[in-house]
Design brief:
Strand 7 and strand 8 form a beta hairpin. This protein is 61% helix and 5% strand. It is mainly alpha-helical. The strands form 5 sheets. It has a 4-stranded antiparallel sheet, with no helix packed on it. A 4-stranded mixed sheet has the order 8-7-12-11. The chain has a two-stranded antiparallel ribbon with strand order 1-2. The relative contact order is 0.11. The protein contains 28 helices and 14 strands.
């Protein structure tokens, strides 16, 4: 047992001290509603049974519950030498924390906006018309824009990609068009000069022809004054062959990545689509005026046409490593200054503000959100498994032609959208639940349950109707309304524009509800108000920074679209959603009595500084090869590498979370575990996957020189699965488990807990198996193929059809099965048991 029993005592106008309690001594705790706590101490140091000792609060006498025992004793029994002094809970932090955040955000947004404006200015031009050597019009700028619409309408960004961004089953359309353009141009030149095909030439002759191809295609013949692009005779022939190639491509599901047979058969749409990918190929090879590299910084890698890495890709990759080392050293110095900046307050327990099984009517109304969350999660995993099968067996789903009903582009759209929906819904519902905990238990806002029901109905309607619209849009059933009510076509933002407006409206209503519930003036504990303010500011950023998703349309220049798209994918998700998640975790730990207010605030402030220092300007690392200039490459490479810094610091917190899950209470002779053990287990999983997925795998593909070869290979979904599911997904599940535990009674929880336990091991082991057995090794081999044969080949069906690739694709199946059966399915059972158990408790009035 322990040699001494230590309690933290607060004196007015005096510095906090830690004093040993003598037998029968009474201590007044000003933080805990002026409770008078009488304690007895055994001569040998053991604590006597104390349930007979009452607690008096505001004149009301009550016996302590076992979770109050946990609060009062579970975190306070240790040798006083192990207890560092902690500043008083009510002391104010330095104003320079907030000032530093504002300075970092101001600088970051100024640079990000500047880079965005430069994206408009430096975007590859869309010529008014494209003509042959005789001046005859081949196609127009309107055809290119219409072809981009065809690309979006049929969900082809969820089959293949353009300039490396999109899906991975089909080809990179721009890279394949460029490669065929190079081959066709070489063949024309060979026939003109030698009278035979290029394949029949000797190596010396071929080298000469290919050298001419690079010079020919890299010469930019766009005339700004006349808004005209002129093609050479060889390029003209290559353009005509593009139509033939893509007409054939869309006829064969076995080689086009599982699209519907004859997905695009209209001659006009095929011509427009060919015009779009030809323009994308031209922009990726033609030199930017005044420079010796293309509009896309020579991406994709295609030695046939002279596309090789630019000097800046090497330079800024090397310099960014110096920035990374300096960033890590600086943050470790800050950690040393404050002795400890981790989540858990070491050795200083606080009484929890929330106890399991004590949920209000408004909080209970939120439980059905998590039933939908679990069902969407299961749906996403099933669709993901089918999607993986398209790569392993593209010629049929165990002999069944699945693409006739559920083609791969629809499945991937649903896979991404369902992930966004279930994770966001979990955050939304958990935020309202937590916001309610900040008020007195009997201070429920009138009508909260009703508004919760309405918000639930709105979310379910948007989710169901938008996903149905995506199917109808891809099936060409919506006519000209496909962009508004069907599938916008942009990866991760496929949801129709009408549903997008409703989503923004719903998020604004959610924030209004959250502010109504958790505004600082209504927070019961005055010391918690600074955390509540940060919590609300972070929540407000969710609807506000989703608005850039409305800044572009189907015909907007591709570079401009990619610029705003990553304001959402990177800045909204990896920046503001991550900041919001940090405040949520801080609030949970504070409410559970595991983190002092100032420690929680410091972590929020420090994470905000680090997130926004690297994350705002670092958004541009997605734009390396999307039509931006090298200034963007330099700035984003130097700053985005700092995003790794806060992830390396997660290891400093790891053991504290492990210890937290092992804390036990033994104040009345009965051993009890911490009530939120599995919430902390999932939070530990968040930390692990954040370091591995976002830190290790993210850093691996972040450097410009690596990204040049890697973008669009399986190393990208390797990073995405580990980071998106491992971080945001595991946190969403942690929040779900937290709410389930808070709403479940002591009698019901054991029946729920066993499924939560199974889900924890199933999701983490299954995800690890996917990565180790398939995604990572396959990604490394695909990266090697890019270097050896060019980007187009590594993204082609020829690579996917290789035996080693097939084996590695099949190796993903065990991980998928574990994840679905032992990860997602038990969560569905747990949420239904929690929801039905809660309803039964309400009906019986318990």
């Amino acid at each position: 047992m322990f040699s001494r029993l230590i309690f933290r005592v607060e004196f007015i106008n005096r510095i906090d001290r830690y004093l040993p309690l003598k037998s029968g001594e009474e201590v007044q705790f000003s933080r805990v509603a002026s409770r008078q706590i009488s304690l007895l101490r055994h001569p040998k140091g053991d604590i006597r049974h104390v349930e007979s000792e009452p607690i008096t609060t505001a004149g009301v006498t009550a016996r302590p519950s076992r979770w109050q025992h946990f609060a009062l004793f579970g975190r306070t029994m240790m040798n006083d030498a192990a207890l560092p002094l902690v500043e008083p809970e009510v002391s104010a932090l330095s104003p320079w924390w907030i000032r530093s955040i504002l300075i970092v955000m101001a600088f970051g947004f100024v640079m990000l906006v500047a880079m965005t404006v430069m994206g408009y200015r430096n975007a590859p031009p869309i010529p008014g018309k494209i003509v042959d050597a005789q001046g005859q019009t081949l196609f127009t700028g309107a055809d290119i824009s219409a072809g981009q619409g065809v690309f979006l309408k049929y969900g082809l960004m969820d089959n293949g990609s353009i300039w490396g961004h999109g899906a991975y089953i089909g080809p990179d359309y721009s890279a394949e068009a460029l490669h065929h353009m190079g081959l066709d141009t070489a063949d024309v030149l060979a026939r003109q000069q030698y009278g035979k095909p290029v394949d029949d030439l000797d190596p010396q002759q071929q080298a000469g022809i290919y050298g001419q191809v690079g010079v020919l295609l890299k010469t930019n013949r766009y005339n700004v004054g006349t808004d005209t692009l002129q093609l050479t005779p060889a390029e003209t022939l290559a353009w005509n062959q593009q139509i033939v190639h893509w007409t054939d491509y869309f006829q064969h599901p076995a080689t086009d990545g599982g699209l519907k047979p004859d997905l695009i058969s209209d001659p006009t749409e095929l011509r427009e689509f060919s015009a779009f990918v030809t323009w994308a190929a031209w922009a990726s090879v033609a030199d930017r005026p005044g420079y010796s590299y293309s509009y896309t910084n020579n991406f994709p890698y295609e030695p046939l046409v002279g596309n090789t890495p630019i000097a800046g890709a090497y330079l800024w990759s090397a310099l960014s490593l110096l920035v990374l080392l300096a960033g890590i050293a600086t943050v470790l110095l800050v950690f040393g200054k404050f002795d400890y900046l981790g989540w858990i307050s070491r050795g200083h327990g606080l009484p929890p503000s929330i106890l399991p099984g004590q949920a209000s009517a408004g909080q209970r109304a939120l439980l059905k959100f998590f039933v939908v969350v679990a069902l969407l999660f299961l749906f996403q995993t099933l669709v993901g498994g089918a999607l993986g099968h398209y790569r392993a067996e593209p010629k049929g789903f165990y002999g069944f032609q699945l693409e006739d009903i559920f083609p791969s582009n629809l499945m991937r759209t649903w896979h991404l959208q369902s992930a966004i929906f279930w994770i966001a819904t979990s955050y939304v519902a958990a935020a309202l639940f937590l916001g309610r905990t900040l008020r007195q238990r009997d201070d429920e806002p009138r009508g909260l349950a009703m508004w919760t029901h309405l918000l639930f109905g709105a979310f379910v309607a948007v989710i169901a109707l938008s996903m149905l619209g995506e199917w109808a849009g891809m099936s060409n059933l919506l006519g000209k309304w496909w962009y508004w009510f069907g599938d916008q076509g942009w990866e991760y933002l496929e949801i129709g524009r009408f549903w997008q407006y409703l989503l923004v409206l719903g998020l604004l209503v959610w924030f209004a509800l959250l502010y109504w519930v958790a505004r600082p003036s209504k927070v019961a504990n005055i010391n918690a108000r600074p955390i509540a303010r940060m919590f609300l500011w972070a929540a407000l950023a969710i609807p506000v920074f989703y608005i850039p998703a409305l800044f572009y349309g189907a015909s907007t220049n591709l570079t401009v679209v990619e610029t705003w798209r990553f304001w959402i994918i990177h800045l909204w998700v990896e920046g503001f959603f991550e900041f919001f998640a940090t405040t949520v975790v801080a609030l949970i730990l504070y409410q559970l009595g595991l983190a002092h207010r100032n420690i929680a605030l410091r972590v929020i402030y420090l994470d905000a500084i680090l997130y926004f220092l690297g994350g705002l300007i670092g958004t541009g690392h997605h734009w390396y090869f999307e039509g931006h200039n090298t200034f963007n490459m330099a700035m984003s490479a130097m700053f985005s590498v700092l995003e790794v810094v806060p992830l390396t610091l997660l290891t400093l917190d790891a053991w504290d979370f492990v210890r937290t899950t092992r804390n036990k209470v033994d104040v009345d002779g009965i051993e009890r575990l911490v009530p939120h053990k599995w919430t902390f287990y999932f939070l530990m999983a968040v930390g692990f996957w954040n370091f591995v997925g976002a830190g290790m795998f993210g850093f691996l593909i972040n450097l410009p020189i690596v990204s040049y070869y890697e973008t669009g290979t399986l190393l990208t979904p390797n990073h995405a699965h580990a980071a998106m599911m491992g971080v945001f997904g595991m946190l969403a599940i942690a929040l779900m488990v937290f709410v389930l535990r808070q709403t479940a009674t002591e009698e019901n929880w054991p029946g729920i807990e066993k499924y939560v336990r199974c889900s924890f091991w199933g999701t983490n082991i299954g995800l690890a198996m996917m990565i180790v057995f398939s995604l990572f090794p396959n990604g490394v081999l695909q990266l090697l193929d890019v270097i050896e044969h060019g980007y187009w080949h590594a993204r082609s069906f020829a690579y996917l059809d290789m035996e080693r690739t097939r084996i590695l694709e099949w190796m993903r199946m065990p991980g998928d099965a574990v994840f679905i059966i032992f990860g997602a399915t038990p969560l569905v059972i747990a949420t239904f048991k929690g929801w039905l158990g809660m309803r039964a408790e309400v009906r019986t009035g318990r």
